[in-house]
Amino acid sequence: MILAIETSCDETSAAVVNGTDILSNELYSQVKKHQRYGGVVPELASRLHADVIDYVIESALSKASVSLGDLTHIAVTSGPGLEGALMVGIAAAQTLANGLKIPIIPVNHLHGHIYAAEVSGELKFPLVVCLASGGHTQLIYMKEDLSFEIIANTMDDACGESFDKVARMLDLPYPGGPHIELLAKDGEVVVQLPHPIKHKPEAFSFSGLKTAVLQLTQSDHEYSNADIAASFQHTVADVMAHKLSLALDNYSANQVVLCGGVFANQYIRGVISDRLDGASCIVPPLHLCTDNAAMIGLAAAQYLNRFSKSAHFIECNTRLGVDFPKELQ
Q1: I need a surface site. Which of 98, 257, 316, 317 has the fewest CB within 10 A?
Q2: ∠ CA(202), CA(266), CA(237), 5° rounding?
Q3: CA angle, residues 35, 289, 243, in degrees to nearest 5
Q4: Residue 75's closest CA among 61, 55, 96, 45?
Q5: Neighbouring-strand partners of residue 11
């Protein structure tokens, strides 16, 4: 019975996960607090996490009808993310773990995004993961559970970050992804935008695409903002689908996993699925695409299956200041 805590960016979330069953998944979003700045302010994010973390944890336990005494582990995002924001979650996890005398499971945030897909169906190895979020854009090859080989990475901007910047150019609110998707429904794919490093299978690049949109918005042109949004969104989908096709030409895979906040975009999901030529494709449910604690709990369950008695697992608890019970070693 795992209590999972996620505070890597601007979402404060806690969930209770029993094995692979999600019993609760509570989330407090800071989006409205950051909108006036056009993006996440790290110091403000940290303070807002500290303000609500206790309430969110209590709510997760209540919704799951679970008491603190029922918990066997505390899972917490240990990175990557905003340092101050991460420390709020880690401090809460340390306090609970020490008080309850149960171990902490430090979880890589990106692993959480991947294992969120398990809710939609069984992962069939070997597989290729396309992970696209505000901070990362990667292709990852997995021969088996918890085996991660990065086969493509972004050379500059992350895919989600480019959505936020283009949204600002089009006078849309933060976060940019949902607003671009909504505006694009009223537009047509009529603007020719660049496809950077198209034939380089090991890398993504979005800075040139973002610059092209900026130059377009600053010039005399005949396109509506809806047309620009539709064309930008389509180009991103085309880039992702093309890179996945290159990866599948070089790696034997039974399945493609699409995960991360960018894949809350239904249009991008559809374009990629249509372009995969019948390859099996799995995507987390919409509510698990963006940051949440349930995905951290699901990844933690995988860690427990493999590492619960390993020296590394025990060392992580010692480093995080947890008095690891000897009977659990």
Answers
A1: 98
A2: 30
A3: 105
A4: 96
A5: 29
